[in-house]
């Protein structure tokens, strides 16, 4: 089975508004999936009246990226094969949403730092000058901008316009890490696990850096976030075909008590559902997970429904509606 490149930022839900903080304590992703579009719509209406409100731009732009990852792309990636056309439509929708969020963030950064949006075209010295201006309170803008753009690119690696931006995006996230390496309980370390493991060396990938960032992601989250374990399982153990490590890390994700840290209950609930999905469908990623299955069986006369079983079996322990993927996903 073809696996889409793992290149999305981990599921991370943060916002300054009290309503959103209450949402993060929920253990009902389906309800939150209906809540976020309303937040986005209200945010855009307010931005139309107060375009200089960069805090509102951050909230609205980041919610676009969250929603695309958690409620559009994440569930679509788990559709069974017979829903291929629906899946592709949802992934196209997710890409559009990612880029809408990034556009809002770019406008806010341009207002804060005139000339920021020239960062893709200016020379190296000017790029350094632009990034040197950044301050610690800019880290959320940079994080969501980079994550949203790379998430959109991962959905279509043949989008050369986005692909050309990767070296600059890497410089931006590096600057964010310099400014606040502990951002949101190690979210950037979690991001680096995915980025360094998934990207080719020519675009900034470096598998030798993955173990240290994984250690830091777990350490900074106190081992109480499922996200780093899911990220490592997908971006490292699957390419390495290390089934034992795959099971171990997803087992650690599932062992976390989602009620222990109520501020991260929603995020952990989502990532645990993802972990369970991966375990239940390990046969799609590891030949050894099939036990005694004869993978060389003659499949003539069989159809996709038979090969993948039915929709219900491929979505074991998952809700029938939407799920969130620590923003994510890491699909």
Features:
single chain; 331 residues; mainly alpha; Serine Threonine Protein Phosphatase 5, Tetratricopeptide repeat; 61% helix; 0% strand; globular; disordered N terminus
Q: Could you please describe the fold and organization of this structure?
A:
The structure is a single chain. The chain contains 15 helices and no strands. The chain has one domain: TRAP transporter T-component (Serine Threonine Protein Phosphatase 5, Tetratricopeptide repeat). The longest helix is centred in the first third of the chain and has 29 residues. It is mainly α.
Layout of strands and helices, then pairs:
Blueprint: H1 18-24, H2 29-49, H3 54-77, H4 84-112, H5 124-132, H6 139-155, H7 160-163, H8 166-179, H9 183-198, H10 210-220, H11 227-237, H12 243-255, H13 265-280, H14 304-308, H15 311-314
Describe what is shown at a glance.
Helices cover 61% and strands 0% of the residues. The protein is an all-alpha fold and 331 residues long.
Helix content: 55-70%
Mean pLDDT: 84
CATH architecture descriptor name: Alpha Horseshoe
Order of helices and strands: HHHHHHHHHHHHHHH
Shape: globular
């Amino acid at each position: 089975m073809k696996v889409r490149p793992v290149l999305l930022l981990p599921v991370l839900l943060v916002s300054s508004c009290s309503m959103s903080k209450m949402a993060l304590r929920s253990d009902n992703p389906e309800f939150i999936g209906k809540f976020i579009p309303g937040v986005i719509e209200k945010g855009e209406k307010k931005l139309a009246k107060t375009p200089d409100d960069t805090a509102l731009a951050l909230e609205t732009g980041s919610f676009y990226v969250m929603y695309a990852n958690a409620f559009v792309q994440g569930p679509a990636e788990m559709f069974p094969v017979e829903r291929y056309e629906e899946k592709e439509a949802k992934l196209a929708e997710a890409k559009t949403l990612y880029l809408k969020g990034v556009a809002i963030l770019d406008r806010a950064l341009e207002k804060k730092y005139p000339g920021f949006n020239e960062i893709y075209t200016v020379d190296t010295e000017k790029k350094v000058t632009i990034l040197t201006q950044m301050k610690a309170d800019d880290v959320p803008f940079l994080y969501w901008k980079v994550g949203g753009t790379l998430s959109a690119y991962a959905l279509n690696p043949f989008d050369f316009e986005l692909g050309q931006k990767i070296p600059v995006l890497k410089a931006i996230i590096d600057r964010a890490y310099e400014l606040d390496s502990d951002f949101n309980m190690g979210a950037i370390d979690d991001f680096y696990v995915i980025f360094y493991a998934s990207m080719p060396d020519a675009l900034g990938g470096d598998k030798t850096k993955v173990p240290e960032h994984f250690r830091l992601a777990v350490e900074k989250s106190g081992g109480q976030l499922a996200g780093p374990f899911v990220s490592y399982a997908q971006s490292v153990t699957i390419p390495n075909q290390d089934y034992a490590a795959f099971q171990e890390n997803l087992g650690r994700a599932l062992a976390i008590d989602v009620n222990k840290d109520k501020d991260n209950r929603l995020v952990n609930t989502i990532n645990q559902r993802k972990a369970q999905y991966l375990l239940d469908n390990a046969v799609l990623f590891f030949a050894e997970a099939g036990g005694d299955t004869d993978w060389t069986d003659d499949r003539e006369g069989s159809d996709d429904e038979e090969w993948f079983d039915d929709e219900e079996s491929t979505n074991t322990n998952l809700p029938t509606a939407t799920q969130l993927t620590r923003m994510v996903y890491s699909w």
